[in-house]
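Chain A, query sequence.
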Amino acid sequence: MSHQLRDAEEQLCAPLFERKNGRMILTSAGDRLLQTARAVLTELDRAESDIQKNGDSAKNAKGPTGLLRISTQCHTAYHWFPPRLLLFQKKFPGVEVQLVIEATNNPFEALLEGKLDLALVCEPIRNRKIHYTPLFEDDVVIVVPPKHPLAAKKCAAPQDFVAENILLYPPKSDSTLLTKILEPAGIQPRKIQEVLLTEVILEMVIGGLGIAALPRWAVGPQIASGSLIGVPLQPPGYRWQWSVAQLRDNHSPVYVQEFIRLLAERPILADFFPRASRSRRRRSPGSLAHQAAAKSSAA
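Chain A, predicted structure.
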């Protein structure tokens, strides 16, 4: 013990004890070190207890344990996939689900770098390392207030956007409306305004501050109430194809594939428009995934 104390004092370049009349009295430096040691030991005991509790919980949890990291290519996905996420967590309580929001701008890069397990995407890229499972299609409509001139039209043409303030998600360089509808037609809107949240876009459209291109299901309640009008784009229009992206050669745990199955097992639109989903079952979003799965099984 005396050797250890001497080594400690030499390392700290300060005496830890005063030796008086055969007694050892802590110096201020020694007292500081003692308080720190007690705090560290307390934290170590707490950490050991927490780890043991988590280990017991994992042992008692039904099914496998692990981590599922997910991100999306568009913020609208955070409206439709939480119900499926809830179903997944009930089935796999031992799996922690982590939403990697910061990867939204470039989920493919995060996926390739191993920072994600799955990405929900609507604009896939060509890369042999990435495998896609199709989920459903989004019918994109132009949302306008009831008294807007476009509200009386059967469909919206590119030239209808010349005098408009277009509200869209950032970055505008990724906007489908701009890059695949307006720019090929040589149309430049009067103003383009980037807005991050769907709810804010809808309120701005209702207030007459602009118009936006959004999936029909995302504006279903507003269209049903009459506060907004959904005008289709002129034929052929545009539809987003949602898919799940994952690394092709990644041997993922069974719960990852189960999460994909939960997303694809029935049309996402059924969560928002049950009747419309039944009437459109022949070309329902979920059927795309089932067809892909059938082809994969046959192969």
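Residues 71 and 119 are 5 Å apart (CA to CA). The chain has a mean pLDDT of 80.
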